[in-house]
């Protein structure tokens, strides 16, 4: 009975997760040897919508089921040699749901990028590999992450057409089993993004971010119904550079409900990133 309870609880937690992957963050241009890069990302949202598979529509969650989420994501990277970068991602999250609350590390990431091609007046193409480890607490309630070991790979394409910059990105996450022996569904993600450069200190961007999560499987290998998810978000924002190397990036994340399905989600989300990008 305890095993069945844990399995059901894990399914509900997985279905409720609405995560965006840092795998494809940044453009395809890589750093030169010996350079460091750093980032702090802050976000706030409320998980307030649930998907009704019977009527195939999103409905408002009751107040007791809504979850306030505050996130802080730390990233530090280094280029051991030209075109090769290694990065560590440490996400921290706070969740509040009715009388429950949790705070702490999410699952940590290690990521590496290598520039395959690119240069002056040429498009850039970069490969990326990512690994995620279960560093979040298994006792947290609400859960802070899915506590699986994951492996991912992707490609980043960037082409400058002044005053615009085009970004095309795609990645695939192979997600393994969690503590309840649930095989978490793999994830495909894609990004289409356009930057518009007004000045050297200011530009705007529009980002379309798609994440498709495959259905999870139980400990016997059977597919768990209604655990697949589709997320298409539109993300407008601006980038302000008050001094060389410093990038301030406020953004607004809006889910397109006519496309999205499965699990629970937010109605809107705000973020603010602070990047240090070396020249």
TrEMBL record:
Top-level taxon in the UniProt lineage:
Bacteria
Keywords associated with the record: Signal
Is this entry keyworded Signal? yes
May I ask which residue range the UniProt record assigns to the signal sequence?
Answer: 1-20
This one is known as Transporter
Source organism of the structure = candidate division WOR-3 bacterium
